[in-house]
Specification:
- By secondary structure, this protein is an alpha+beta fold.
- The protein has a single domain, classed as Single Sheet (N-terminal domain of TfIIb), CATH 2.20.25.
- It contains one helix and four strands.
- Bound molecules: zinc ion (ZN).
- The site of zinc ion has 9 residues, from loops.
């Protein structure tokens, strides 16, 4: 725990990308990337690599995509919880 390792990531200084709380690992490492050519957004956690993609509308912002992402995540959890007996 004592040591902190930093990955070398080049981020332009002008604006840091917004990060969100990951529903799986609980860290603020979720990022939303927009693929403009395909009207898609990719959501990825930089910590646990939880990832998903969504088709979006033009007006969508990263927070909207994040909401879809968490909704889907919790829905899937709900389903798998009722479907399986292991805990
Ligand atoms: Zn995570």
């Amino acid at each position: 725990m004592g040591r902190r390792r930093r990955k070398v990531v080049r981020i332009p200084k002008k604006r840091l990308p917004q990060v969100f709380l990951c529903p799986r690992c609980g860290k603020e490492t979720i990022r939303v990337e927009f693929v403009k050519d395909e009207d898609k957004a990719l959501v990825r956690c930089g910590s646990c690599n939880l990832a998903d993609g969504f088709s979006i509308k033009q007006a969508y912002k990263d927070i909207d995509v994040y909401c879809k992402f968490t909704d889907k995540y919790y829905n899937e959890r709900k389903f798998s919880k009722s479907a399986s007996t292991n805990q």
